[in-house]
Amino acid sequence: MAQTDLLRRYWRKNLVVTAALLAVWFVVTFVVSFFARELSFAFFGWPFSFWMAAQGALMVYVLIVGGYAWYMNRADIAHGVAEAQE
């Protein structure tokens, strides 16, 4: 397989993963917040809407960043574009 084809596949995977993670970010940031008032049950002693806005969204953001870093590190190695280890 030519090097340009391999790099195009790598870039395509990168775009797909980025789009999927942006969709998750959008849902957590806007969709859940929009319906938060209807989430009126207690969660760890706090209203669930407050917990989701204050803690849950931040936890999801950290998972998004960590998942992207992990996936792209594996993709870099698989496609031969990983940074050299010292």
Distance between the termini: 29 Å
Tell me, rounded to a whole number, the average pLDDT: 85
Stretches where pLDDT falls below 50 for ≥5 residues?
Answer: none
Spell the H/E element sequence: HEEH
Describe this structure in words.
The protein is mainly alpha-helical and 86 residues long. It has one domain. It is 73% helix and 5% strand. The chain contains 2 helices and 2 strands, in the order H-E-E-H. The protein has helices at 3-34, 48-78, and strands at 42-43, 46-47. The chain has a two-stranded antiparallel sheet with strand order 1-2. Helix 1 packs antiparallel against helix 2 (48-78). The longest helix has 32 residues, at 3-34. The chain is elongated. The protein starts with a helix and ends in an 8-residue tail after the last helix.
Main attributes?
two-stranded antiparallel ribbon; single chain; 86 residues; mainly alpha; 2 helices; 73% helix
Task: Produce the secondary structure layout.
Layout: H1 3-34, E1 42-43, E2 46-47, H2 48-78
Antiparallel strand pairs: 1-2
Helix pairs in contact: 1-2
Quick summary:
With 86 residues, this protein is mainly alpha-helical. It has 2 helices and 2 strands, in the order αββα. It has helices at 3-34, 48-78; strands at 42-43, 46-47.
